[in-house]
Queue: 4 jobs
Job 1
Amino acid sequence: MLKRVLLAAAGAALTIGAAHAQTMAKDTRGTPDERAAAVLKQMTQDEKLLLVKGYFSTDFPLTKFTAPPEGRAGSAGYVPGIPRLGIPAQWQSDAGIGVASQGGAKSKRPHTALPSGLAIAASWDPEVAFAGGAMIGSEARADGFNVQLAGGVNLVREPRNGRNFEYTGEDPLLAGTMAGHAIAGIQSNHMISTVKHYAFNDQETDRNAGNVTIDEAAGRESDLLAFKIALEQGNPGSVMCSYNRFRGDFACESAYLLTQVLRKDWDWKGYVMSDWGAAHSTQNAVEAGLDQESGFGLHPDDNLGAGLVAALAKGTVGKARLDEMATRILRSMFEHGLVDDVASPVGGIDFAANRAVSRKAAEAGAVLLKNDGDLLPLASVKRIAVIGGHADKGVLSGGGSSQVYPGDGFDGGNAVPGLKPNFWPGPVVFYPSSPVEELKKQLPGVQIDYLDGSDPVAAAALAKQADVAIVFGTQWASESIDVQMALDGDQDGLISVVAKANPKTVVVLETAGAVKMPWNGDVAAVLEAWLPGSGGGEAIADLLTGKAVPSGRLPVTFPADESQLAYPSEPRKGEIPYAEGATVGYKWFDAHKLEPLYPFGFGLSYTRFTMDALTLDQDDDGLLSAEVTVSNIGQREGAQVVQVYASHAGWEAPRRLAGFAKVSLKPGESRKVAIAIDPRLLAKWDVATHGWTVESGQYAIAAQTDALSEGEAVGFSLDKLLFYPAGWSMPKP
Ligand code: BGC
């Protein structure tokens, strides 16, 4: 009821004060703060309340909810504007992989899908992340959206988390950098992007109630550091707080997360929106620092709608707090251009150009894990057997709210419709980008036969007759579920049978995250293509034929099996203490001397590189950078990822990634790269001084080709680095 009244109020306001609107909101002379303050002064309480309550923007029969007609149909959210003051509505869509449609939407809007967030992270190239974000933002604009629910930066702590494909890996520096650049790319289109899901929402099992606890310093050095770096590099207009509990409070009601860390320590100025249904009370949420509640209608909670109206009337929430909430929202809308460049569905998406962006990203993020005898790129083959993974039709995508549909209509252009689950957390969607078709195009004259793999005996027989067998292995994952760290069904069995029939077997993986590979020793080559997006089939063919040279590196460790995990049995429920602290991913393997299947940072190429010994440099401000000369000593142009790891005895693990750079080199070319070291990666969070502190002692820095390999280390002691005296604390956390 309240919803209708508020929407009606906004509509009525339009006719009263339209003239004034122009002078208020279009005045571009002030700073975002000044402009937000000036508009706030003109607002009634009802108008302020409009800004803090978001609606689901898809009909939802379960709660008998009909989406507001002013929203963009079939999308995630809508927040009414204030036309009288020139403040546009907020049209929200998901976002991380491309412009999504809600699964329950009657008709899906066609959009370009990027490779998964993990694939983008695997490029280790911030420019790839920015270009992908810019592409998503441009499509969002074309469909009239101005808020993108993107920027997933939850650390991959639990390899079975069903949403890992939306995130950017297990290391805070890599994850924060890649998510930050994706956010910046999106926002370059005059819109707001979120960073999400804040914080410690690292698994889907029990996601609405599980209570995460972690030691204070370890939290700052891991998940929170990833968020902080993403905020610095992406400057998102909004932070989306998550579903889970943290230290007993729901994340959207956590004064620690929303006020202590975000406002006091980080001095952040944007607004906090809740995940859809993640706020559970008015008083706690408002006091903790929540500014906008999202998705009314998908859930019945109306904490920042009716609940807030009542609290204001009772005086349990003061008017000043509502002013603060509205001001933060307005400020971000001004800062990111939503008011000066109002979104409207103008259309005109260049799908061919955008698919090329996606294809390039998929090429940059694919990781060549094994290539015995240089079987790849495919050369002088006459007959290829391709098996499984629906490679004749398309490439797999991840499910849930981030699902992008390639076409319109109810099925949304799914290349393999009808796979289970059909509905939430499905549907399972394949993008119509067939690796087989593209291989045929790129290898004219080669006989390429395809079998779906449902009959392993037939598959083995086909493989035997071919020069090379290529088996596609898939792992689907989705929001709201966690998954096995394995290929779906019995694809492992299929691969083993094929590999026995033909030792020249290549496995192409389309997985949401890390999987076990019981057949790893039996196959000649493995290419991890992740969930490769709209141009994924073409990208895979490019890499197999050598039209493109693999340059991705793992953004997550691939464990040998679950026994190596911090919590081997399965993702936990209820109380979820992070006893491993900041010892996440490769750090866990390093600290416990475990040998994974493939380590973080690992990836092969079709060319070869050398790295000369590293030297350290210090600028006038005392900031360190590592300088390394990289050379391409092979026959092909290719890119090396220089990974700089720092080590110190007193840390959570022997080594931390402290900086990285991707360098593209022609055959015979050498280049010197300077890689700045973020000082927080040489520091520890000191609870007593509430800041980053560099301990005195011995440190070493090495350039490596993965997290667990040995590089030639340069050692130094802190006494020599006057900028970091013992106990020196960096200015702000
Ligand atoms: C997800 C968010 C998403 C929102 C809106 C939630 O279920 O956790 O990531 O942005 O839905 O679709």
Job 2
Amino acid sequence: MKQLLDTAQKIKSMEIRGAGKIARTVAAQLHNYSESLNTGDISQFNDKMKIAAELLISTRPTAVSLPNAVHTVMRYVGETVEEAKADINKRANDFIEDSENAVRKIGEIGAKRVRDGDTIMTHCNSSAAISIIAKAHKDGKNIKVLATESRPRWQGHLTIKQLDDEGIKTSLIVDSAVRYFMKEVDIVIMGADAVTANGSVINKIGTSQLALCAHEARKNVIIAAETYKFSPRSLLGDLIEIEERSSSEVISDEILKGYGHVSVKNPAFDVTPREYIDLICTEVGAIPPEMSYIIIKEHLGYSLEDINSNVKSKAFNQKY
Ligand code: RI2
């Protein structure tokens, strides 16, 4: 239990972050937790697993990869605790392996859209987006990257380190400079925390204004997103909750206390409408955002009947 609580805390505090990494971490954690349970009583085991799943899901509300990963593992079957543990082990390992392969595949598919000599702008720190950039570089394309700082958590610093390690020429820019530099940009590549049925992309705050600037300048925007970031619940009309994080990420509590009329707003994500996105690069292909519904329905295997007839017990527990 201690390890489970530690992991939940690390996800909450963003020590463990990035939609894909969070998904792989919770899959591994559910497996570890299941192994640590000593009971031989299957219903007691199931109850404890459910509590663990709910705890992990509650850590961060926006990245759909998190509940999707949890639900994938929690669809385990087993008459006995041993059978259940074996199935959890398999599901968690399969998910992690599929996830890693998906990021690699996205790199291979997306890199074909990057041309020799391109200047790429990216935002925040997305392993899927970096997979594309790194593959284009490995393929011998002479590319440059403009990476935003991504305040208030400065994930851009992680991005420039990773790109530097790959030997890619990179300039760090402040978030407010994206329009200033857009004329130098050939293509924008960013990640996603969630993709909805109508093709909207939820990603790090600032993504939508960057996409808007790119649209204004007629520059292509590619979103790199594994299929487990697509939201089945959005087919029901459910909105993705935008996480509001602590004011202390933006300004110190001490300074804030000195003001009588000031509050801080700190949404961690925003929504980019599909009109500003040219392509969503997934592991099953590069698709226009309008095809998101198809990914949810055909690739993830939902039918509207499933969702309408028995949301909780059928669709969402069988699939993501
Ligand atoms: P990968 C991150 O969220 C960023 O918004 C990033 O674009 C997205 O997850 C996807 O990351 P946060 O955890 O899965 O930093 O592509 O809030 O690594």
Job 3
Amino acid sequence: MTQQPEQPARQCCLLLAVVGNPIAHSKSPQIHKAFGEQLGIDVDYRKTLAEIGAFASCVAELRANGARGCNVTIPFKQDAFEYCDRLSERAAQAGAVNTLIFDTEVCRGDNTDGFGLVHDLVNNLHVAIGGRRILVLGAGGATRGVLAPLLAQGPQSLHVANRTAGKARTLIELFADAGNLSSSGLADIPERDFDLIINATAASLGQSLPPLPDTLLRNGGAVYDLVYAEAGTPFLHWGEQAGASLAADGLGMLVEQAAESFFLWTGRRPRTAEVLEAMRARPVK
Ligand code: ATR
């Protein structure tokens, strides 16, 4: 019997995905491809459109295909929270999951959004949070996801203002033990001269701006929009006119949350600065 030559080992790549609806706009594949190239890991990261109501079956298919995990974006972060067998502490605090990790039998859920925001503010943009007066606009899932990591930095105070004041009040009650928190509607924000104002409303997605008094920001303070937009957002333009020394969109947060997800899947931490720089220089459409 002739000996069969040994087959070359099958090229094995790391299968990952982002699940959302819509999904065409997502920059995550470019970011994770860059991480993989940097670390010598062959990454196949796919945009996956899930129909509303079909999140679980979409994830089941990814698992059956051998994926290591996936990111989860609008509108499925709550579905992902319910889908997981185990939750990290930060996912439990956020009440939402943006990263699924598929172990053999078990699916773990984490939330890297707040980590991404704080890392971008503190490490990339050098905006201090500790000891500062912070205002967060909006009281939806995005705000819930970032409150605990912001409070962990020890701000002097953190005020949440929302179009629907009752939602802001309900939200801060969840974090009452974690810091000096207050809430209001958008029209009756009691303090002025905030050091940092973060827009976590969905208003920027529609390129609109909640009405804001221009005395809200301390002269030389910082504004940050969780939305990423090449040409800026109405909120960032408002901040510049209100005297901000720094106005940043959410691209840095996107890259930083992606790096933390990549670490959860691979145990390897990519360098983010060069990826962020490349994306700013050559925006991916
Ligand atoms: P997400 O998960 O992105 O936070 P969400 O849970 O639907 O989405 O929350 C959207 C947030 O944006 C809410 O705080 C919403 O205010 P309401 O709670 O009053 O609905 C806020 N928002 C949406 N459009 C807005 C607008 N045009 N002006 C001000 N706030 C807006």
Job 4
Amino acid sequence: MFTEANTPAADIPAGDGETNGFATLGLHAALVRAVADSGYTTPTEVQGRAIPPALAGQDLRVSSSTGSGKTASFVLPALTRVLAARGDGKRREKGVVHGPRILVLTPTRELAMQVSKAASTYGTHVQGLRVATIVGGVPYGAQLKALRGPLDVLIATPGRLMDHMASGKAILANVEMLVLDEADRMLDMGFIDDIRHIAESLPQERQTVMYSATFAGHVGRLAAELLRDDAQTIDVASHTDTHENIEQRLHWADNGQHKNALLDQILSERDMEQAVVFTSTQRDADWLADRLADMGHHVASLHGGMPQGRRTRVLQGLRNKQLRVLVATDVAARGIDVPTISHVINYGLPMKAEDYVHRIGRTGRAGRNGLAITLAEAPDAGMIRRIQQFTTQQIPVATIAGLEPQKPAPRLFTQRREGGFGGGAGGDRPRGRPFNKGGFRSGGGDRPAFGGPRNGGGFKSSPRQR
Ligand code: AMP
């Protein structure tokens, strides 16, 4: 998620120096101490949201990227299990190989090493903690020895673990918690059958937590197989994500009428497969959906004021393509995981900058490209500025031929920001994606009058490669 290398924990909030937020999550004091030793006092979003249900034994489906603090979000609950077992007074019989209580599967050796390091760091006050790492590309000897000894946590890549299972050396009969880290990458690497086989060898009543950038397609189906029906879904967008596969554009509108004309044009573009149009209020969502329906669009609104049954039916309509346009509010945004959404259009801006990130994340799913278009009027400039500061990226300004704004674009930046971006709307390149990619005209240039001839409404640029 980091836009630059070597900026660890860049988006992780600083602690307040007085209370330790990890204690309030219900973690054992030994773990809170170890986390504090590492200098962390405030849980990151994924930690705050995943740790309590994980401690309660729930299965989890978590979307969260590297750098969000996700490793600790499963290592800490895992170590809590180890500590609980230490305290249950039941001694494990000597001379019998019990195998680990916790099994973590990772796609690569590097990730396995990172998880192993986190387990040792956060487990530093867990007496006699035994962690083993089983990865490919290294000799078997030390791994066999580790598997024979008493073991609390086993971190493995699927291929090598399968080898040890085949030779009967890996005992997995006592696994209480299975973690799949970066499940989508494991599937990309062809590990699906190995994962299935490993999971089948574990006790039925285990807890399973799955981390993946997406749960669409194969990985979603695997999640449905491995997780219990009441598994909780946690979706954490990372705000400095560069969203490489999502192209962002900002269109300035002179007024509401101009904004509607821009929206109508965008919705009539041929490469528009399905769109989610966001409004600021439920009333606007209903009003806009009615307006678009009158124009002949297959459209519905989705917002928190609707009964759950209707919301589910609307989402189903989007999934089975009966709907081409969904008009939604922020409350509804997080539950929308439909890979065919090609466009996200911000018709009304969000109240909070982080909601912008949740919104644009509705497109570009399952490895596809997406387009996130923001339609803004002059009074929205403050919010646009906050969004750009929050994401540390500039949204390139674009125009549509024949629908160019007449008013000059509001100035978003008046001074250079250290380590960020500066200049006017046509200023420095953002850190994430190249500015003005695709040859869009940046704001502030000469513009023909709004309402002039429409050249079929094509975007004023070379066509985008999608
Ligand atoms: P991860 O997403 O697990 O790869 O973690 C990214 C980085 O954030 C690692 O260097 C962690 O040590 C660090 N980290 C994890 N939790 C916190 C936290 N609560 N506060 C600050 N940094 C953290």
